[in-house]
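re the bet — no i am not wrong, look at it urself. input seq straight from the record:
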Amino acid sequence: MNIDELKTAAEKGDPKAQYTLGLAYYNGDRVPRNHVEAARLWLLAAQQDLVEAQCNISTLYASGDGVPQDYQESLKWLRKAADPEQGNNAGAQYNLGCAYRDGEGVTADDTEAVKWWRLAAEQGDADAQYALAMAYIGGKGVPLPVSATALMGAVELLRKAAAQGHTKAKMALEMFKQKGII
């Protein structure tokens, strides 16, 4: 679809066209770079439940790029994209877990972080697999004491993440091998 067709479809309310045109404005692809316009278009698409747009507008609100920085608004869209009954987006679930780990816009809560990482890890998200493995290994947000079975599960998560090219997971596995843990 050329840029004029994309603009027409976006103006008619097509959420995929709004999202794609937002990408074009964000990246300066065939149109002048304009993060404010990208945010406006992504918000329109997000309001129509397009998960990719919900993820992108959440990121913009978190960073204040093209919109005023607003962690609560960022979390609103991130939760919609992450919700298993709505968007079920693994990347959003991972990011929501990180928000809970770091206390970004929410009260820090390792148990809540683990909940979201588990959902993303089950969908094969390598970052979530690594984060969940580290939570088990560090005993954060998980039942204590951490059982040997849970630790072996953590090693399996590291293997899955490493198989996807996750550098930190590869390094952790190598360290465990050098120490004779696995």
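see?? The mean pLDDT is 96. told u. also DSSP finds ten helices and no strands in the chain. so pay up
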